[in-house]
Each structure stands twice: as structure tokens, then as C-alpha cells.
Amino acid sequence: MSPQSRPRVFVTRQIPEKGLECLRQVAKVEVWPGDMPPNRDELLRHAEGCQGLLTLLSDRVDGELLDQVGPQLRVVCNYAVGFNNIDVAAAQQRGVAVGNTPDVLTDATADLAVTLLLAAARRLPEAIDQVRHGDWKTWEPLGLIGVDLTGKTLGIIGMGRIGLAVACRMHAGWSMDVLYTARSPKPEANQQVGGRHVDLDTLLANSDFISVHCPLSDETRGMLDAPQFAQMRSHVVLVNTARGEVIDQPALLKALTEKKIFAAGLDVTTPEPLPPEHPLVGLPQCVIAPHIGSASRDSREQMAMIAANNIIAGLNGRPLPHAVS
Ligand SMILES: NC(=O)C1=CN([C@@H]2O[C@H](COP(=O)(O)OP(=O)(O)OC[C@H]3O[C@@H](n4cnc5c(N)ncnc54)[C@H](O)[C@@H]3O)[C@@H](O)[C@H]2O)C=CC1
Ligand SMILES: O=C(O)C(=O)CO
């Protein structure tokens, strides 16, 4: 195929080169060069006339964008497993295939959830600050006391790929019992970690640690709000690596400041980035990472390959290897 007749693909951010090389074999690829994502106008302008779009979570893909890109558009793939930024129904109505990059980031994201859980439970940011600021005066019998982990109960909200990987780590490493919610019981969770499928209220009332792993949807938005915090144990450590909007953030702030729960570890917030002056940032018992769950070398490279293969399949009118519906 001559370079002129190749389909056009717009990639909305620099991604690992391996994936781009693969795409360049079959398509004329434009990569957004900015450190910041394209704004709406820039996205609309650069996407117009493309057959493929490789998008990020910060790119809203809706009916307006799809119409402006034009009827030649065949495929959109998010460089992420979550796809709450894409109106999948609008894409399907227009015959546009939608893909994502699951599995290859499961371990990295689960590792980060465990890291946040441990850091929040053992008050690591406060301890590090003490050393940095010259406040480490002596060995203190009553200083920086955290919560214990071994043999406690872990509640997983959304027992999918990442939820199960977190449960496996905490069950094998800390002998935790596992409760979980999901749309249906997961036999693999029962087999691998003895997990019990329960309703949300049961999970909230009986867990010492709670880790959120469900996708963001109309059903899960604001799922943890004031009434849910009121049901939690006062020593709970809450971890969220799913999406910020699953938790009502003002309710979380209140629960933390009023010591209704012990601590939180967040990789996702509302909004992202969270401004440094936001009250959650200043709370010692809230550990916040800047959405780095999948930020490991192998995960990001493999995500790029999956995304490229999805786009290539879509351009060729083949079913996507990793399609969402
Ligand atoms: N922080 C980060 O960098 C990353 C964040 N994520 C987030 O993690 C989420 C989960 O990823 P995976 O485990 O791969 O997805 P998955 O699809 O394997 O698992 C999601 C689970 O949530 C369950 N679920 C759906 N609605 C629910 C509800 N209302 N209540 C309880 N459970 C519900 C589903 O049944 C499923 O078992 C993604 O959607 C994404 O938002 C994923 C990767 C990296
Ligand atoms: O994959 C996702 O859903 C993320 O949030 C980033 O990897």
C-alpha cells in the first residue's frame, strides 16, 4: 500500500515506541506531541478524517466527536482497560469498533493497590515526613501506631481481574479472609482465596480493609457515600485504584477528618490532577498517588502492543482482539 493510500490514525499522546512502530507498518500515524493532552478543539481537529483513534482516559469520545471525525472512522482503542471516557453505544450506533488494553496491567495495578494499602495502614507518608523534617526525636512506644494486617478481612468491591490479583496477594501474604462484591459470584475467587460473594452492606460492615476495583458506570458512580462510610469499621483502610468518581470525595474527606475510618490510599481522584491545595492532599492519613497503577515498563509496552493490534484489526474490518461492548 502506498503511504498516501494508508488509513490515518491519530494517537492522542506519545506511547511506547514499539506500539507506534507496529501501527506505522499499516497506517499514516500522527502522534500528539504535547506534554499535556489535546484540548477538545485540538482533539476534534486532529481526529477529523481519521480511520483509527488511539485515545487516553482524558479524551472524551462521544457522539459529537464521532460525527466530527466522520463516517470513515472504523476503530477507537483506549490506551487503558477502563473506558468510561468512551460512549460505547454511540460508537456502536455508528459502526465504530471500540477496544481497550486489559490483563497486561493487572499485576502492576494490583501491586500499587497493595502498596497504597500498606503505606496507609502503617502511616508511611507521615513517617517519611518525620525523618525529612527533622522530627525523628527518639524511638517512641506510642508513636506512629498503625493497624495490623495479618489474618484480617479484606473487602474487594469489584472482583474482576485486578480485584482478584489484590485478593491473591493479601490472602497469600497476610492470610486475609476475603469478602467481595461483583455482578455475579466468581468461582475462581472462591477457589483461589476462599472469597465469599456478599452484598455491599455486608462487605462494608465486616471488612478491615476495603479495595475498590469496579469500573466507573452509572451504577457505581458515588457508590461509596456518607451512608456507606457510616457502615465501615473505624479502623478501616480504604484503597481506590479504580476511578475517583466511584467514591463521593466530600464524604470521604469527612469520614477521614472525623476519624470515622483510619486511612485511605488513592491512585484516582476527582478531579485528576487533584489540586495541591485540596484538603485531601494535606491530610496525613490520606496517601495519594497520581494515577500510576499501570505505570510499569512491561505493562505500558504491552498496552501499546495491544492497542496497536486492536487498531490494526479494526482498520482491516476484523474483530478486535480486545473489544469492549
Ligand atoms: N489506577 C490505574 O492506573 C488503573 C485503574 N483501573 C481501573 O480498574 C478497573 C477494573 O479493571 P479490571 O479488574 O481489569 O476490570 P474487570 O472488568 O476485570 O473487573 C471489574 C469487576 O467489577 C465488577 N463490577 C461491575 N459493576 C459492579 C458493581 N456495581 N458492583 C460491584 N462490582 C461490579 C465486575 O463484575 C467485574 O468483576 C478498570 O475499570 C479501571 O477503571 C485499571 C487499570 C489501571
Ligand atoms: O487502564 C486504566 O483503566 C487506567 O486507569 C490506566 O492504566
Automatic annotation (TrEMBL):
Keywords, comma-separated and alphabetical: Oxidoreductase, Pyruvate
Catalytic reactions of this protein: (R)-glycerate + NAD(+) = 3-hydroxypyruvate + NADH + H(+); (R)-glycerate + NADP(+) = 3-hydroxypyruvate + NADPH + H(+); glycolate + NADP(+) = glyoxylate + NADPH + H(+)
UniProt similarity note: Belongs to the D-isomer specific 2-hydroxyacid dehydrogenase family. GhrB subfamily.
Family matches, as SUPFAM superfamilies: Formate/glycerate dehydrogenase catalytic domain-like, NAD(P)-binding Rossmann-fold domains
One Pfam family in the UniProt entry: 2-Hacid_dh
Enzyme Commission code: 1.1.1.79, 1.1.1.81
Domain D-isomer specific 2-hydroxyacid dehydrogenase catalytic positions: 9-324
Name of this protein: Glyoxylate/hydroxypyruvate reductase B
Domain D-isomer specific 2-hydroxyacid dehydrogenase NAD-binding: 115-293
Superkingdom as given in the UniProt entry: Bacteria
GO terms of molecular function: glyoxylate reductase (NADPH) activity; hydroxypyruvate reductase (NADH) activity; hydroxypyruvate reductase (NADPH) activity; NAD binding
Classification lineage: Bacteria, Pseudomonadati, Planctomycetota, Planctomycetia, Pirellulales
One of the record's GO cellular component terms: cytosol
